[in-house]
Amino acid sequence: MEVYDGLLCNNQVEVRRIVFYKYTPDSLNMMEMKVLQFDDSVVAGMNATTKAAYKENITNYSVAPWRPKANPTKAWALPFVTGKKYKIHWQKGVDFMTMQVDLSPHWKPTDKDLYLIHNFTDVRAKIDFLTGGDNI
């Protein structure tokens, strides 16, 4: 309905907050984060040319502003619909060396998965993923 100026979802839709912060390099300061819906239902039927055009069209992206003062500082915080795939990047594909990603405290083990696709252009010698305080 137009009165809400948004989407109404039933109770089957899960929305959870994710915060991206503690990043290097500092050149990411003040950059917007770009988010593109990248579900298989959206891109599976696209050929290489159509997919490239989809990724290049800036109107297909949501933009998350950089938050200088919120807690945590120097961060991006976004709500994501679980069970979906998103392609995320900063400006024109700027890469990060380190970054902490925290899930909302409302996230439950029974929630649907979330898939984040990143630009990744540098070779790393070691990548640690921490879940529940354990290295995996």
Q: Strand content of the residues, in percent?
A: 25-35%
Biggest beta sheet summary = 4 strands, mixed
Specify the structural class. mainly beta
Give the integer mean of the pLDDT values: 84
Over the alpha carbons, how many angstroms does the gyration radius reach?
16 Å
Name the poorly predicted regions: none
Number of strands: 9
Number of structural units classed as domains:
1
N/C terminus separation: 46 Å
Q: Which strand order spans the largest sheet, edge to edge or round the barrel?
A: 3-2-5-7
- Overall shape: it is globular
Q: What percentage of residues falls in helices of 4 or more residues?
A: under 10%
Order of helices and strands: EEHHEEEEEEE
Q: What is the tally of helical segments?
A: 2
Which key phrases capture this entry?
three-stranded antiparallel β-sheet; four-stranded mixed β-sheet; about 140 residues; single chain
